[in-house]
Design a protein that fits this description.
alpha/beta; 9 strands; 43% helix; 11% strand; globular
Length: 411
């Protein structure tokens, strides 16, 4: 790999599944650093934005120390570090507001079912924002970015630190806004619609407004990473790109319930675009390879009047099966929070009951809000195993970088 090759790190959304990404990074990034390959462009959506902001704030540390600190924080996470208690006043107030809204009480509006205001305090405690800014300013990071969805335009907005306005692209549905990253932009990126309230972002002035979770439009921001000029990209996701086939989640002869329907919506919003983007990356690499020489690429640029496609070697680490994380959620819930054991953490036990019991696909839904140390540790271990599996493949001279479509890999 050329010494000046710019490596991007793309972190997808997934709520509490973000612990999986922490496990992947803890295994992958130290190994890459030993090879002299360290990401300098970091971008994330939703919980990936939280992971990205943290990694940007520790870019001055060696990869092993940086990852270890993030693992420690994930393993200490509890529901109350993210949201106010479900059991108690919050639930009652949400119910009252909902009924008042339904019956047309003036001024009554239910903005969300859960209150995620504690997340802002947790981010300020866990992330050193000044160090993040210093790492960008001093060149340890080329750029750091998070993605949120504008409530006004429904476009994906990429808040970028490390770029001036004239250095940023524009497209039909993606807006790029240079700024200094803050907790509000990161919270906005993780504001799951209906569950959490939209977040108001003040900076930059031209992007001032209300925002929802970036994953509703752009859950795996590969294109923004390419627009920021990376030469290689690492994509870490909490869903595989394996084709969706017949599933045993739904029992034949039984009408699908709300869990079946909710999982279909999740896959449509979070997974379908991931599959398309990762597969397209491999296909474009094949097209560029067939086009041939740099001279041919220049001629292509002159004809088309824009930057030609480039070959982008990449890594893609994700669970091997689509129910891998749901299965872990079900097991951890039954072992630690089922029955009377749920008394010690009533919010998690209540979440399980509200989802209709912990069976597939309900465990799949729980996995997004299952903020418990036991679940985090299990996902971290899974992430480490999947990263190690990627690294241990027989890749050849270029190391663990893939250019062909990802579906060409053998399981």
């Amino acid at each position: 790999m050329p010494r000046d090759a710019k490596i991007g790190l793309v972190l997808a959304g997934g709520g509490a599944r973000g612990a999986y990404e922490a496990g992947v990074m803890a295994e992958l990034l130290p190994e890459l650093e030993r090879r002299g390959e360290r990401p300098t462009v970091i971008i994330g959506t939703s919980v990936g934005a939280i992971n990205a902001a943290y990694m940007g704030s520790v870019a001055h540390l060696d990869a092993e120390e940086a990852a270890a600190g993030w693992i420690e924080r994930w393993e200490a996470l509890s529901p109350r570090r993210v949201m106010k208690p479900i059991v108690g006043v919050q639930t009652a107030l949400a119910g009252v507001r909902y009924l008042a809204d339904v019956f047309g009480v003036p001024g009554a509006r239910l903005r969300s079912f859960l209150d995620a205001s504690p997340l802002g305090e947790t981010l300020d405690e866990w992330l050193d924002w000044r160090r993040l800014h210093a790492n960008v300013r001093d060149g340890r990071l080329d750029a750091a970015a998070v993605v949120a969805t504008s409530a006004r335009s429904a476009h994906s907005v990429v808040f970028v630190e490390g770029r001036r306005r004239e250095q940023l692209s524009e497209s039909h549905e993606i807006e790029y806004r240079p700024t200094r990253l803050s907790r509000d932009q990161v919270r906005a990126s993780a504001a799951i619609p209906t569950l959490f309230e939209a977040v108001h972002v003040e900076r930059p002035a031209e992007a001032k407004g209300w925002y929802f979770d970036g994953g509703t439009r752009l859950n795996t921001p590969i294109k923004p990473a390419l627009d920021l000029g990376v030469d290689r990209v690492i994509v870490i996701a909490t869903h595989p790109v394996a084709p969706i086939s017949d599933s045993d989640w739904h029992t034949p002869g039984r009408p699908p319930d709300f869990g079946d329907g909710a999982v279909q919506l999740l896959f449509a919003a979070l997974v379908d675009s991931l599959i398309a983007d990762v597969r397209m990356l491999g296909k474009l690499n094949l097209m560029v390879g067939q086009r041939g020489s740099p001279a041919a690429a220049r001629r292509y640029k002159e004809r088309r009047g824009k930057r030609p496609y480039r070959r982008i070697p990449y890594m893609f680490v994700a669970p091997r099966s689509r129910d891998a994380i749901g299965d872990i959620a079900a097991r951890v819930f039954h072992e630690h929070y089922g029955g009377l054991r749920g008394v010690r953490e009533p919010d998690i036990a209540t979440a399980g009951r509200l989802l209709g019991g912990i069976t597939e696909p309900h465990a799949e839904l729980l996995s997004y809000v299952f903020f418990s140390p036991e679940f985090a540790r299990a996902l971290i271990a899974l992430g480490r195993r999947d990263a190690r599996r990627w690294l241990e493949r027989d890749w050849g001279a270029d190391g663990p970088w893939l250019s062909d479509p990802v579906e060409t890999l053998d399981d």
